[in-house]
Specification:
The chain has 176 residues and is mainly beta. The chain contains 1 helix and 5 strands; from the N terminus they run E-E-E-E-E-H. Strand 1 and strand 2 form a beta hairpin.
Length: 176
Amino acid sequence: MTSPPVRINNPEHGFLDIGEETDDKVQRKHHVQLAGGNGAALHIYSDGGWALVSKTNSKGSNLIQEGTGPINIVSDGDINIEAGGTLSLRAKDIVMETLSAEGDIAMNAKRNIKIDADNNVNILGTNIKAKSAHNLLLHSEGWAVLSGNPVSSYERKTKLIPTSFRDLIETLIGEV
């Protein structure tokens, strides 16, 4: 036997419902709903989940934290962010880090990726590869230094490249 729902209602500005949703068409029924007269709502579900829902508007929605305390989002599962327009991140510092030995960071663009730094760009790794389907241009208005031990040049048309070196290069290029 379930308790009757509790409803606090203002016909113009919204309501607070406490009690399981009765609409059989809804797959995930809320136990608590706080809704505005415009249709925006906070749903709290019996399984411990929640949803904060906005309705179409021209001014957007905000999550604002004043003071020095952080806003923390913690999930045992995935976090998915999807935007129909631009996703902008602005901060004093931006840090991205994977937490497992198998963790990767992947950036996939349908068009261009631009990295523009007012100072230095450092790329560090055990093996670093750059691969271009058409042309690869490296340009510097100052010094350009290629340093290694050894430094080798590989050009596919020449027949002077040792087979073992060619095989290594082809393997590394194929992994990009």
